[in-house]
Fold each of these.
Amino acid sequence: MQAQTMERRVLFTRQDLTRLLVPLMIEQFLVVMVGMVDTMMVATVGETAVSGISLVDAINVLLIQVFAALATGGAVVASQFLGRRDVEKARASAKQLIWISVLMASLIAILALVGNRTILRLCFGSIEETVMQNAMTYFWLSALSYPFLAIYNAGAALFRSMGNSKVSMLISFLINCINICGNAILIYGFQWGVAGAGTATLISRITAAVIILILLRHRTNPIYLENVLRFKPDGELIRSILRVGVPNGIENGVFQVGKLMVAGLISSFGTAAIAANAICNNLGSISNIPGSAIGLGLVTVVGQCVGAHDHAQARMYTKKLLGLAYAIMIASNLLVAIFAKPLISFYNVSPEASEMAWEILMVYCVLCAIIWPASFTTPNALRAAGDAKFTMVVALFSMWIFRIGFSYVLGSWLQMGLFGTWLAMEIDWVVRSAFFLWRFKGDKWEKAKVID
């Protein structure tokens, strides 16, 4: 008994946590920064091209969140089996995750390819024909990449469940380089325009999927794939994955729909408000990187602790990592606040938009440092324990009542404009954090079950 207790105390050493979290932070930083560079490169294609791509990206972000939610479900299941030291079940769950990810993404891809123009018309109504043509081209190429994106997300989640986030960091760096170089060659060199941007993205996602599958076949990993082409559905394992993946997918999907609704409201405030909102979204995402990365790491840490039936250790690591998230996010938000004005100047927008963005960022950085980790890092610990339904219900309630409802009340009715919509978002954070911290303090999440 004493040996078992000692073993549990070192489930994750400081070195283990460092190896898990540092690559995750680097990866998240790369995604944000390369995304900004990618947007600037595509912007040179022309206004109608950028408009078409931005419309499709609204759909793409929604689907990416669904794929990521399913991958999180698989990561929770695999982590819990590893914590239980049942590597055979962990490997079996990995194979199930890969296959259901491919099948789901392929179905969505087929629907997108067949219903290309119809789907775009249903989502965005009557738009200029040149914008529609560009959107159709980009949507078609994006749809081809969905199965490969789903494979990569699933594989990256499995490596994180093993405590190895370095793999996804290195692959992310490689595919982002491919994407940027592909854009440069196909957009500037071959003058392919929107087709060039879509093709570069497709090539990068195919590359990522191939590499992650090759690495997952190495038997040196605790979880590895064998006989990948021989697939037999395992209802019990699939239900376990979906028990976390479905609520998380609904939560993420509705979150993106809500953001689109608020974006529609913001568009009614004028061009300066739209520009200021885009700047705040870009710079705000930088300050969120530490919390997002630590949240991903919590899925692995808490998942393995719960799998080992050690909820006390799950609590201890959650408190420790939440404290770390606060410490780093205070520093990151302080830096964004200090350098806000020179950073805003890079966007070359009107003085009105610049002033609006600066005012919003000053309030945002303070509240983000104080509230964001509790409202977005903490729920990952609950999901990893299997309490995904609770996080979904809270998120949906808070999203519709506070983020969306208060955006209209503060932004439109009380005429606070863009500042009102951002204040509504921050009120949403407060509500979420209160519910999630209350849930974590209690013991109901400890009774949730993902695997039998």
Amino acid sequence: MNLHSSHFGKNFLWGVAMAAAQNEGAYNIDGRGLSIWDVFARKQGKIKGGDKPYEACDFYYRYKDDLMLVKALGFKVFRFSISWSRVLPDGIGRVNKEGIAFYHKLIDECLQLGLIPFVTLYHWDLPQALEKEGGWASHQLLKWFTRFVTLCTEEFGNKVKHWIVLNEPMGFTSLGYMLGKHAPGKTGLDNFFPAIHNAAMAQAEGGRIVRDIVNKAYVGTTFSCSEVLPFSDKKEDIQAANRMDILLNRLFIEPTLGRNYPHDGFVLMDKLHLHVKAWKYTDRLKFNFDFIGMQNYFCLTVKHNPIIPYVQASEVKAATRKVPHTALGWEINANSFYRMLKRYWLYGGVKEIIVSENGACFKDELKNGVVNDEARINYFQQYLTAMHKAQQEGVNVKGYLAWTLTDNFEWNEGYKARFGLVHVDFKTQLRTIKNSGYWWRDFLAK
């Protein structure tokens, strides 16, 4: 079958996604406060190549040109996030009028071009001023977050109807508050457990605020997901895969759907449940979102490893198993993506699914003005075919947002990990549409 966008339905949402901290730059311009990533990047050895997000893709000044690229490639949706520290430099209190004005201009430009603005409220860039007070591990987090969400929805809700509350809560809580690999670089269960509970509470409370303030809101939240497969049929490997699955795929969606935190005999979950009882309010974890944003990049194969605390599991790398993988070593497996779509749909309470991120990093080369990224085109073809199969089998997939429009600051990977449909020369900020971008243009053409 020669797949085309029309096969997914007339009202299917096709778009691209990006994030403020990875694209905007202008980190100290027009009253913006510092974010945790601005500070984290200063620490030696935290970002590959010593890269910093201070200029990134210069989207703050080039947003009109980049939105023209979105339009030229045929997309209808533009997903972006609001920098918390740009609108509230201190996290709470004083509102930065210049920051508010920027997002009004960005939204207005989307609407003028016929693009649907799809706003992510929190995409990993907490104001540093709030991190000093404990960040996502603080008992005040929910108060801070509700203030931020209320400000954004009151300011932009008459123009923006499509909202995402949190981007990948498992990502920023585990990497930022347990493993220390991402900002703010904290470690340990004493940080991880409160960050989990605060994030789970925040996504539900954020959903309630959006629905209360925005007329005819379409509101969801996003979860990263990775099918976890045991390396062998040994009991120990199967149990290791189950423990990893609880953390990666169940920890946040199940309380959202009213099932509370998963357990299944996992000792780490015993500790979380004891911790949460002290914090209480588990009845506030549930919220009936209009859609669930599913973000899938790879599957994992794991084996039992008693050296790793609690999880007692470690990844068996795709390269080791000699299976297809991206430049970051992430396994390419469209069948796994299909299975995760089916699995999330079979959860009771999921109304609709938006694939809110999906994409791949390869070692792109710009030669004579051309980026021939055939591997990325093949990736998209495989994953869209898998999504179409799931849709034909009854999974209510309503949209797909490619990650990402332009190469950007890819968190601790810096600028060398390229996911964009558009190549960026970070010295000159010159944009060059890759062949995958042109492939999308043809795929989306009427």
